[in-house]
Structure formats: structure tokens, C-alpha cells
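For homework, think about our next protein:
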Amino acid sequence: MVLLSIQTLPCSCPTLNNYTFNYRSQGQGQGQRQSQRRCLKSIVIRCGIAEPSGEPAPLGQKTKYNDGLFDKVFMTLFTRKMDKFGKKGSDEMEKKKGWFDYDYDSFVDVSRKMMQGRSRIQQQQVVRQVLMSMLPPGAPAQFRKLFPPTQWAAEFNAAITVPFFFWLVGPSEVVEVEVGGVKQKSGVHIKKCRYLENSGCVGMCVNMCKIPTQDFFTNEFGLPLTMNPNFEDMSCEMIYGQVPPPFEEDPVSKQPCYANICTIANPSSNVCPKLSAN
């Protein structure tokens, strides 16, 4: 998502309190640097973990969140858009739900419905439509101009991922990774992905999140991104600046279902059926 204007919100989490991005751009003109500074100066996002420890719940337990206004606005926007582009029938959801009646469960439920009757490729195409619809006209071209595929751009996008995608994936942190033999802080470690733990579905993780997000940044924005979900502990690593492998060469293509927690799992299959092309 391209962030053109940002408001500061109160924060109750010490790890993000006064979260400020100080950045510099080498080899860029003064005008472009000023434009980038206007794009993002200081970001503070309220934390939503409701667990006593302040950390995600252990594997097998669902993390409790205390979602605020910022979180619910994004949940509502994405859920409504997904329902609009994904539905094949009536406007039943929009008639029943008001603007602030949506929550994270609504978001996951709509995601699950979008999978029904669609192939892996079709699911990814619908998510792409949703993402494109969230952007103003000309946003991809503007993003490519502001953030060419450099180390600085990769590190900058990793930094803004932490606060702005908290509502979607839960707590995360910027980590050092190696891209093309160069160590840089363009990695994001998601401690326990909220989307994966709430859906409990490998297919939803891969088709509705990983692949569409990778393709969106790599092909629409021109900034390569690779996402490596860990299905053992539900964590995930995002690597900005790294070109993702073809699906057939990606380890996730061989991932079996969560047989005990996925409502649409096929325990008899060695690979999640939703990962097939059909």
C-alpha cells in the first residue's frame, strides 16, 4: 500500500513508543529526498496484543488482540473490498454489516469464502484486484519513482511494514538479512502471523497472502519481495530486495494441511489441495 499521508496515533507499547524513521538516500536529488520525507516522517502505532506477556500466544493457542480504531478501519476496508471483488452472489454482507461491525474474524471469513470454487491462480488474481483497488490512480508508477529497487528502498519498506501491517500479521521486527551477498536490514520477522493462526489454513496463507503480496511488490511496485512462512511455529520472514522463486521451486508448494486445525483440510493428502493449480 502506498502511504501518502500519515497521522500519529498514541502508543501504549514501549517497543514502538516514539518509533521514528531516520533515513537517508544516497545518489538522489534534494527534491526527491524532500518528497520522501514528506511521505513519512514519524510513525507511532498503538499496539494491540492483549496477552499478559505482550507477546503472541504459544503455538496451538490463538493470540488475543485488543484492536483499536486504526486496526478496525483497515479490517473494514480490506473486508469490504474482498467481499466486493470475491463474491459471486448477493450483497448480503454489505446489507447486514455497518462500517464498524467488521472485525478480524470477518476478514478471515471473507478470505475463506473467496477460496471457494476458485483455483489457486484465480484466488491470487482476486487478491491482486483488491490490492489495486486500494491504491489511487498512478500509485504503482509513483512508488517505482520514489522507491527504486535499491538497498535503501528495501530497508525503508521493511521499516514501515512493522507498524503499518501490525493489524494484519501481528507483531514483527526488522532484522538483518543477506541479499545478493550483501547484509542489510531489509528483513521483517513476523513472530506469529495473525492471519495464519486465525485461518489455520496453509492454502489461505499461500494463495491469499504470500504469493499475491510477493507478486504485487515485485511486479507492480518493482521492488522484489520474498516471504518465507514457517508452518512449524507460524512465524514468517519477509525479505525486501530478494526476488521470489517460481512457485514450483518454493518449499511452500509441497506443504501439507494443518490437519488438526484447518476446517477445510484434507488429512489424506501429502500436499494441501488448495496449492494445486486447479
Notes: The chain has ten helices and four strands.
